[in-house]
């Protein structure tokens, strides 16, 4: 399932919702991305995420479908936020559930790697000098995504 | 046709979207870009280096010059930085 929202999410609550009453799930992996206070040497004070409504959901759904094709997932959840976020707030959540840990671990990493290079989101960082800078893409993110091709 | 701009393209142009009627000679993506550039120096500037621009036609990534056909929506944006 794919959810794109402005509101904060609660990783624990999402985990509980996904696993409640289930006896076929042997492994759950959760990844939560947070707003940190530094990037490329500058002090970040807040983050604003812009996205492409419509295409964002389509791309995330394609990424989920690709993960489900490669691994045996019983559940898969992607939540990605947009709008302004303060330091420490959650940005993105990926939860993968499977019978065994191998599929859940691999699929969670794959989902994040592909999401980073395909989902149409853009980060605008505010820093302690009062500037707002668009975050640049990272070569390391592309290298990470290429591992799965 | 609707044209969308995101992130620094949007902030440099000061617009997020516009509806355009294409002249008859504009039938491919690159012709569209050339036509957008010809209208105004701000567009000339943002499309100066196409290696830093990503394009989606009707919300699907496009990486080469293709016919626009009956496309309803063309979006221009920088490489994505979500997650």
UniProtKB/TrEMBL annotation, chain A:
Keywords: Molybdenum cofactor biosynthesis. Its EC number is 2.8.1.12. It catalyses: 2 [molybdopterin-synthase sulfur-carrier protein]-C-terminal-Gly-aminoethanethioate + cyclic pyranopterin phosphate + H2O = molybdopterin + 2 [molybdopterin-synthase sulfur-carrier protein]-C-terminal Gly-Gly + 2 H(+). InterPro entries: MoaE_sf, Mopterin_biosynth_MoaE. Pathway: Cofactor biosynthesis; molybdopterin biosynthesis. CDD domains: MoaE. Pfam families: MoaE. The keyword Magnesium does not apply. It is an enzyme of class 2 (transferase). Belongs to the MoaE family. Heterotetramer of 2 MoaD subunits and 2 MoaE subunits. Also stable as homodimer. The enzyme changes between these two forms during catalysis. PANTHER family: MOLYBDOPTERIN SYNTHASE RELATED (PTHR23404). Converts molybdopterin precursor Z into molybdopterin. This requires the incorporation of two sulfur atoms into precursor Z to generate a dithiolene group. The sulfur is provided by MoaD. This is Molybdopterin synthase catalytic subunit. The lineage of its organism: Bacteria, Pseudomonadati, Pseudomonadota, Alphaproteobacteria, Sneathiellales.
From TrEMBL, chain B:
Keywords: Nucleotide-binding. Coiled coil: none annotated. Pfam families: ThiS. Gene3D superfamilies: 3.10.20.30. InterPro entries: Beta-grasp_dom_sf, MOCS2A, Mopterin_synth/thiamin_S_b, ThiS/MoaD-like. NCBIfam families: moaD. PANTHER family: MOLYBDOPTERIN SYNTHASE SULFUR CARRIER SUBUNIT. Belongs to the MoaD family. This is Molybdopterin synthase sulfur carrier subunit. The gene is moaD.
């Amino acid at each position: 399932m794919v959810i794109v929202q402005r509101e904060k999410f609660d990783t624990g609550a999402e985990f509980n919702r996904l696993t409640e009453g289930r006896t076929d799930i042997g492994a759950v992996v959760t990844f939560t991305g947070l707003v940190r206070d530094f990037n490329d040497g500058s002090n970040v004070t807040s983050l604003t995420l812009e996205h492409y409504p419509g295409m964002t959901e389509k791309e995330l759904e394609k990424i989920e479908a690709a993960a489900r094709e490669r691994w045996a997932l019983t559940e898969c959840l992607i939540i990605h936020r947009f709008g302004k976020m303060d330091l420490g707030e959650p940005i993105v959540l990926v939860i993968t559930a499977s019978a065994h840990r191998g599929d859940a671990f691999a699929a969670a990493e794959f989902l994040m790697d592909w999401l980073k290079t395909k989902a149409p989101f853009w980060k605008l960082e505010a820093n302690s000098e009062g500037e707002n800078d668009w975050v640049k893409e990272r070569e390391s993110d592309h290298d990470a995504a290429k591992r799965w091709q | 046709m609707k044209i969308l701009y995101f992130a620094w393209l949007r902030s440099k142009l000061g617009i997020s979207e516009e509806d355009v009627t294409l002249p008859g000679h504009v039938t491919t993506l690159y012709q569209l870009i050339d036509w957008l550039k010809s209208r105004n120096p701000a567009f000339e500037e943002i499309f100066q280096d196409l290696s830093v621009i990503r394009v989606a036609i009707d919300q699907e990534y496009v990486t080469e010059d293709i016919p626009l056909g009956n496309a309803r929506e063309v979006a221009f944006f920088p490489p994505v930085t979500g997650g």
